[in-house]
Amino acid sequence: MSNQPGSSTAAETDEPEAVEPSAGEASTDETVATGRPEFAPGALVLALLSIGWLAAMLWSTREAIHSTAAGVTAISLSAYALPGVITAALVTGATVALLATNRLGRATLRFLAAVGTGLLVGLVAAVAINLTYADNATTNTIAGTAAAAAIIGGAMAGARQARVVGAITLATLTAQIFVVLFSRARDPLSDLFGAGETQQSVLDAAKWVSRTESLLAGLLAGLAAYLYLTWSRRRAERRDGVASPLRWPTYLVAGAGAGLLLLLTEVIIRIGGRGLLDLAAALSEADEVAQTALGTSRVDNGIWVLFVGALTTLIVFGRTLGPRPVDDDEDEPAA
C-alpha cells in the first residue's frame, strides 16, 4: 500500500529505529575512547628470561676479562663483549618495566613508572658490574653504558602498545640466544663456504657466515614476534571477552623491532662506549682494523635482522588472512 496523505502510514517516520550496541561492541568502543594502555601478557616470564640473560652476559664477560693475564687483551675483550651486554641491559630494562607497569591505566603515570623502573634496573646492573669487575676505567664505561641502556629500555616500555613492546623484547632475546648457539657452527660453515689458506678466502667465507647468521636470526625474530602478538590477542579475548584487532603495521613494527634494538644498541655504544672502543682501536693497527670491521658488521647485522624480521612477520600474518568477503549486491548487474 502506498503512503497517501491521509493514511496512517504517512505519519510514520521513514528513519530506521535506533539499535542499541551489544555488550562486546560497547566494550570495544569504550576501550578505544578511553585510550588506556594495553596489557602485555607474559611480562613476568619475559622479565625473568631477560634478567637471566643479562646475568649470563655479565658473568661471561667477567670470566673472559679475568682469564686474560695482560691488560691489553682485557681491553680488547671488553670492547668485543660490550654490544652483548648493552643489548641485554636494553631488553631487561624494557621487560622489567613492562612487568612493573602492566596494571597501570594512566598513560603519563605508566611512562614515568617505566622510566623509574629502567633507572632502577640500570643502577642495579651498574653496581653489580662495579662490585664484580676490576676497578678501572673500562669497568666504569661498561657500567655507565649498561645503566643508560636500561633506562632507555624502560622508557620504551612506557608506550601505549605494550603488546608490541613485549613482542620486540621476545624477538630480540630469541635472536641473541640464537647468535650464541650459532657460534658453534661458525667453523664448519666457514669450511663449507670455502675458507682456505689465503686471507681473502677466509674473509669471503666470514662474510657469508655472517650473512647466514643474520638471515636466520631475523627469521626467528620475526616468527617470535608474530607468535607473541597472536598469543597475546587470544589471551586478551579470553581475559576481557574482546580484544582490539591488530593491523599489519603492528606486525611490521614488531617484526622489525629486534633489528631496531640492535641498531639502537650500536648508537648507545658509539656514544656511551666511545672511550672504550677508541682505546681498543689504539692498541695496534690490527686492532683498529678489527674494531672498524666489527662496527660495520654489527650495523649490517642489525639491518639484515630488521628487514628479514619485518618481512617474515608480514608474510606469516598475510597467510592467516582469509579472502575478502564480497557483497551479493556487487555481483548483481545494474538494472
From TrEMBL:
Q: Where is this region: Disordered?
A: 1-31
Which residues fall in a compositionally biased region of kind Polar residues? 1-11
Q: Kindly list the residue ranges recorded as spanning the membrane.
A: 39-59, 79-99, 111-131, 137-157, 164-183, 214-231, 251-269, 302-321
Q: Which residues form a coiled coil?
A: none
Keywords for this entry? Membrane, Transmembrane, Transmembrane helix
What is the protein's given name? Integral membrane protein
